[in-house]
């Protein structure tokens, strides 16, 4: 399968990109996605080796802090089965999971940080989902062209 590109949003106070870089092996275990369209992207389309733009949301300056790689593709989100967890789902079962997780590994930090305003100000990114009004999905596909432009804005040439 051809490599795909994604924008993954995480609330800054849940896990910042800097925090991800300080985790063992720089790996984060994505949990708690509870939107069916985002779930379908994780379950059906994300693959190990895909690259992501790590977007920090719910903070003073939302935007893209860097690149992370998918190191484990979609698998059942364990939090849905834990009755003590905030993301527990009583309708989910191990035989028929409703929600999926994936694992990302920190790769490169952007310098400079690419803010949402920077993205909106770049006319080449006018079709990028994250800059569109009302686009709130936490998992969004990104074209190779959009990925390359954002990487350049963040001081990195895409590979």
Could you characterize what this model shows?
- The chain is an alpha+beta fold and 159 residues long.
- It has one domain: ph1033 like domains (ph1033 like fold).
- The protein contains 4 helices and 6 strands, in the order E-H-E-H-E-E-E-H-E-H.
- A 6-stranded mixed β-sheet has the order 2-5-4-3-1-6.
- The longest helix is centred in the N-terminal third of the chain and has 10 residues.
- The protein is globular.
Quick overview of this protein structure:
The protein is of the alpha+beta class and 159 residues long. It contains 4 helices and 6 strands, in the order E-H-E-H-E-E-E-H-E-H.
How would you sum up the global shape? globular
Count of domain modules: 1
Mean pLDDT: 94
Q: What is the CATH C-level name?
A: Alpha Beta
How would you spell out the order of helices and strands? EHEHEEEHEH
- Report the major sheet: 6 strands, mixed
**First and last CA, distance:** 17 Å
The value of Rg in angstroms is 15 Å
CATH fold assignment: ph1033 like fold
Major sheet strand order: 2-5-4-3-1-6
Q: Please name the CATH architecture.
A: Roll
Low-confidence stretches: none
Q: What name goes with the CATH superfamily? A: ph1033 like domains
Strand content: 25-35%
Q: Share of helix among residues?
A: 10-25%
Count of beta strands:
6
Number of helical stretches of at least 4 residues: 4
Structural class: alpha+beta
SSE blueprint:
Elements: E1 5-11, H1 17-22, E2 27-30, H2 36-45, E3 51-57, E4 63-76, E5 100-115, H3 116-121, E6 139-142, H4 144-153
Parallel strand pairs: 1-3
Antiparallel strand pairs: 1-6, 2-5, 3-4, 4-5
């Amino acid at each position: 399968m051809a490599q795909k590109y994604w924008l993954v949003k995480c609330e800054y106070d849940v896990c910042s990109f800097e925090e991800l870089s300080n985790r063992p092996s720089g790996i984060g275990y994505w949990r708690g996605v509870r939107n069916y369209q985002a779930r379908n992207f994780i379950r059906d389309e994300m693959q190990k080796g895909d690259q992501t733009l790590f977007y920090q949301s719910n903070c003073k300056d939302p935007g893209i802090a860097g690149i992370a790689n998918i190191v484990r593709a979609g698998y059942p989100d364990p939090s849905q089965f834990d009755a003590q967890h905030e993301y527990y789902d009583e309708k989910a079962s191990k035989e028929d999971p409703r929600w999926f997780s994936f694992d990302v590994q920190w790769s490169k930090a952007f310098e400079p940080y690419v803010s949402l305003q920077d993205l909106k100000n770049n006319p080449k990114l006018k079709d990028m989902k994250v800059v569109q009004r009302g686009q709130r999905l936490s998992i969004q596909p990104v074209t190779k062209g959009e990925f390359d432009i954002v990487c350049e804005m963040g001081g990195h040439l895409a590979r």
